[in-house]
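WARN no homologs supplied; continuing
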Amino acid sequence: MHLANFVDKMSPKDQDEISAAFARAVYACNLPHSLFEHPLWKAAFSKIRPCFKPPNKNSVGGKLLTDEYDKIQAASKIKIDLANALSVGSDGWKNVRGEHLLNFVVCTPEPVFHSVVEPKTNREDHKYIAGEIKKVINDVGPMKTFLAVTDNAPVMVAAGHLIEEEFPHITHVGCCAHALDLLIEDIVNLGTVSNIAKMCRALVKAVKNVPVNLSHFQLKQEEHSARTGKRSVSLKLPSPTRFAGVVILFHSVIANKEALQQTVVIQDLAIDREIKDIALSEDKFWSKRVAWHSVLQPIARVLAYVESNYATLSDAVEAFYVISVDSLQAFKSSPITKYRRKFEDCFEYRKSFVLKKRALCREYS
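OK structure emitted
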């Protein structure tokens, strides 16, 4: 069949549905609303469907965004209405413009988005925050809401007390993911861990921030991979707000131990003596780094699961049990045994905020 004179056509309904699908991908990937206005995107769409007109930035940031929001809200309402028991979670964050917002999620137990509140000129004290949480509770159904979840900021804890006073059947507990991240921070702030983390950062920066050093390191990585058959792991630095990133830092350093040691001894490279001592010191650096990674890794692993959409309320109990077994095991016959008591104190403190009365709620999860 000869298609040289084929004319591509698309109904208004198909145009709208495809535009909505592409806009949804833009929102999910946090891409610029003007993405489809670039000539190369237009050329690509023309190759796929010549008759399709990609949405412009005004449409992506206007009607399509409003329609998607309404669709999500409608789907969330159905899940909330069908649930027999609910928990309400709240957290503060800043958008790309630096404006502070309050985010509300309702667990059915599947977490669904409820709303975002912009405090604007309101003072974000415990009474204001409690008032906003109450609005959400009253909206979703106070008699089937049994839990209010926040972080452990003093203002949030005080707001939680007000919620418990007004709704005696509702229990305020701490966010498990937040507590685990803070537990990692507690451990990292112990003197020896803090020093090891600083040495890891210094070692990674000395390699990554100098192009010639990085090139030699990558060659050593390739040689190691070819010899062992293991896939290379890139050197990583933690973000300033995600303390679990320290675990990733430790893992990336130990996975590249051989390549790092081979790199720092290359005479032509301008690497400080201090950095060389870090990379080559088995007793002062590597043995302790491995030991602390064994303590932190179980917490990071549990944290990743707790932050997923698959976690339920009762998983918090299991999460702290797994950490109590796996992390404490790492203290046996290791160079960090003397820090076990300090770890236990940090662990119990974070656990007490999260698991307060939580066992009573397991039947609802």
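The beta strands are 86-94, 100-107, 111-117, 145-150, 171-174.
OK
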